[in-house]
Design goal:
199 residues, mainly alpha, Hypothetical Protein Ta1238, Chain: A, two-stranded antiparallel ribbon, 6 helices, CblAdoTrfase-like, ATP binding, CblAdoTrfase-like_sf, nucleotide-binding, PduO-typ
């Protein structure tokens, strides 16, 4: 008969209480206020991954083949976060090696952008976020991406984060825009355009 005498293993608690005083730790072990711009950038990147996750779910329901790319982007955003959480001013060489961010993912995004752009009708008007749920969610992701980029640029300019991280987010917003248009086209949904209201 099974031994029930052993105490059941307790799952680790999700809360640590270490941030209750308004401070949090970087990967380098530095304690910084939660309002520090590093945590602003990390939060925006996390929000971006969540927005892309939602767009991916909508797109998956429609059978879009680009969902695997969105999953790869979410994985890259984890690496973006690792780089941001390792401020270069306090990083040892081992930290830098483990969390460096190369140009390769940037070039991959450029290939994806070119591929989808070639299949799209030319832009003739200002497009509003629309074109079905997949497309609208991708447009929303693009807007969150722009904010993440705005949070990251000052860190790059201060020499705290890798310039390729800012480049990646810049290309990612272009990719999400093109993908939103592609999703609308594939689903046969109409993209709403800006019409100047009557005075």
């Amino acid at each position: 008969s099974p031994d029930h005498s052993a105490a059941p293993e307790r799952a680790p608690r999700i809360y640590t209480r270490t941030g209750d005083s308004g401070f949090s730790s970087t990967f380098t072990g530095e304690r910084r206020p939660k309002g520090d711009r590093i945590f602003e950038a990390l939060g925006a990147t996390d929000e971006l991954s969540s927005a892309i996750g939602l767009a991916g779910e909508f797109s998956s329901e429609k059978g879009h083949t680009f969902v695997d790319q969105l999953h790869k982007v979410q994985c890259m955003l984890q690496d973006v976060g690792s780089n941001l959480a390792t401020p270069l001013s306090s990083a040892r060489e081992a930290h830098r090696k483990r969390t460096s961010f190369s140009e390769k993912p940037v070039l991959e995004l450029e290939q994806w952008i070119d591929n989808y752009s070639e299949q799209l009708p030319p832009l003739r008007a200002f497009i509003l976020p629309s074109g079905g749920r997949s497309s609208a969610a991708l447009h929303f992701s693009r807007a969150v991406c722009r904010r993440a980029e705005r949070c990251v640029v000052p860190l790059v300019q201060a020499g705290e984060a890798d310039p390729n991280v800012a480049k990646y987010l810049n290309r990612l917003s272009d990719y999400l825009f093109v993908l939103a248009r592609y999703a609308a086209m594939k689903e046969g949904k109409e993209e709403k355009i800006y019409i100047k209201p009557e005075p």
